[in-house]
Amino acid sequence: MKRFMFNQGKNQYYFVTFSSNYPVKDCFPVIGDLYLTNFLKLLFMKRYWPILMDCHLSAILKPFTISGLNIFRTMLPGNMLILILFNLLLSPGCREHHTGIFKTGTGVVEITPPVGYYHYRGISTGIKDPLYAKAIVFEQGETNAALLFCDILSIPRELSIAVRELASEQTGIPFENISIGATHTHTGPSIREPLRNYFESNVSGTAERDTTDDYIETLITRMAEAIALANENKGETDIYAGISRVEGVSFNRRFLMTDGRVRFNPGILNPGIVSPAGPIDPDFHYILFRKAGQTGFSASLSVFANHLDTEGGTEYSADYPYYLQKYLKEHFGEDFISIFGTGTCGDVNHIDVTKPAEATRRQHITEKTGRRLAGALKESAPGLEPS
Fold it and tell me: What are the backbone angles phi and psi of residue 126, rounded to the nearest 5°?
């Protein structure tokens, strides 16, 4: 575990990262081989409070993750924001906190592969909207850390290590203070096999170099570049935290059936459905950043629990976070940066099985989800006070 604390006025903000130095299947035998092997829990709190840890894969800890989070939320003091986002490998330890000017910086670099490269559903046939690596760097005194979120399906351990080593070398941010996560978009590139080939050919020398290695090398470089760019853009920053609710766009996809079984995605209007087998989390958590001396917000860091599988097809797309970015730019300005992390959505997707398929058809629900999230943030933002 790694814990950082940043001060702003009378408030303290905790940034907690944790995971294992081993594959998840070695640490949690019941989970097995997962797409996402490491995790991040980010807590910004207005008071000192014990840090509560839990594995957030609702696909595995079905009754405990979301409902447990709600219980913990009622136990914790008010005026706080809990963000649960995907994370990467971090080494254990804890660092002393420091006082001083609180600074943040953001950086965005495009990581869209060329058309014809591997796609989650086969081979890509086009680009619906570009994919990005988005970074935010925090600094106060001698303490600095970076978060990086990428529009891809997952972050294999080898990719995490390569990017963090390069970014640390370029910025001076300690390797163990950098966390990288995937938005888990299902319309991004498939990189596991190319990544394995890349390291076999470039590290162990046991395989011939493949042309697909070129994108992997570019991906590593550009992910690190986003962190370096964010580090260069650091400036004194005020933080504004908020929570809103967005209902009607996310649904539990496991159902208790009339035969007594629990089924996964049982189908639209299936007469055998009794009820959902678990909850959802409609809360939309976000942090807004405003640079000192500026009147408008420059960036947001947000989380919502819903699978990024609303677009479909074989064109590259960031899914609904693309529209979240689009509508926030329309409101806050073209230079605004929306950084999104996926919440606890192992059992949650966009399909409402109680209505005809047209109600939650792909692409239509993509834009609707992004628009609803942006609307929820805009409606609550005017009343925010600095955290």
Answer: 170, -175
Q: How many helices (H) and strands (E) does the chain have?
A: 7, 21
Residue whose token pair is 């076999």:
200
The Cβ-side half-sphere exposure at 343, using a 13 Å CA radius, reads 21
pLDDT tens readout for residues 334-381: 999 999 999 989 899 999 998 888 777 777 899 999 999 999 999 988
Most confident range (mean pLDDT) of 28-32, 35-39, 71-75, 346-350 is 346-350
**CB of 77 closer than 8 Å to CB of 50:** no
What's the rounded Cα separation, in Å, for the pair 364 and 369? 9
Q: What angle (nearest 5°) sits at the alpha carbon of residue 72, between those of residues 33 and 369?
A: 65
**Residues belonging to the chain:** 387
Specify the 3-state DSSP secondary structure of 267.
Answer: coil
Does residue 232 sit in helix, strand or coil? helix
Task: Tell me: pLDDT of 147 over 70.
Answer: yes
Calpha distance 228→278 (Å, rounded): 41
C-alpha angle 207/21/205, rounded to 5°? Answer: 10
Task: Answer yes or no: are the C-beta atoms of 140 and 98 closer than 8 Å.
Answer: yes
364 sits in which H/E element: helix 364-380
Residue 346's nearest CA partner among 82, 31, 42 is 31
Helix, strand, or coil (residue 244): strand
Cα–Cα dist 31/20, whole Å: 14
- pLDDT tens column, 189-221: 999 999 988 888 876 555 555 665 789 999 999
Q: What is d(CA 60, CA 54) in angstroms, rounded to the nearest whole number?
A: 12
Encode pLDDT of 90-145 as tens digits. Answer: 233 334 445 688 999 999 999 999 999 999 999 999 999 999 999 999 999 889 99
- Picking from 301, 307, 347, 343, the residue whose alpha carbon sits closest to that of residue 324 is 301
Question: What percentage of residues in the chain have a pLDDT greater than 70?
Answer: 70
C-beta neighbour count of 355 within 10 angstroms: 12
CA angle 297, 152, 227 (to 5 degrees): 50
- Give pLDDT, residue 364: 85
CB contact burial 171-196 (16+ within 10 A = b; e otherwise): bebbebbbbbbbbbbbbbbbbeebbe
Sign of CA dihedral 185, 337, 290, 140: positive
